[in-house]
Amino acid sequence: MSRLDYQPEIVHMSPDQLRECPDNDKIHTEEQIERLALIIKEHGFDQPIVADGEGEIIKGVGRLRAAKKIGLGLVPVIVRDDMTLGERTAARLADNHSASLEYDSSKTTKSIKTLQQLGVDLKLAGLQTKRLAKVQGHIRKLGKKPDESEEEKQEEPETLSKPGDQWLLGDHVLTCGAGDIAQCDIMVKAWEGYTKKKAMRHSDPITRKAEDKNAS
User: Fold this and answer.
1) Closest Cα partner for 115 from 144, 90, 139, 131?
2) Is 0.85 topped by the overall pTM?
3) Percentage of the chain lying above the pLDDT 90 cut
């Protein structure tokens, strides 16, 4: 039976009037209850507990435990006395197992970074301790400036030639000045590509001859 037209009414009840279902399969850790308690204290109890007509909880065991932990006298409750045992059981399982377990990590990181910039207590985000630590580590890594030596390595590409080098290109000698390194490299590579030979650097003839011999 469709209940799209169902209009829930919220009542306020003492936590002592509610009880947990003994067959509830969701495990609530103490860390989770502490996070929920902190969130409720900061933002208020804006997500009602759902219970049947006898006060047995269908959804919201964690919120009930958090309410008791911080000593709330009343909690908001939606009473579903219109549901059968089968419907209540299915609703409880659906609530426990339909929660999202996958997240867009880039958006999580962006949101946590925003909280940091605003000076908000990150515990209020509700993330598990390990998950929060991982996100914070990622933020620190993103904000870390590369080492200056690494920047220099990235900015200065490797060259074949050095100032003062003389390249023997067949019958011609190419001398590299301090401002001609890039042009020298281009000419050396072009000559090697055209002749299929290794150009010999006059400042290091033994090594270049060995390379030339191996290449042939």
Assistant:
1) 139
2) no
3) 29
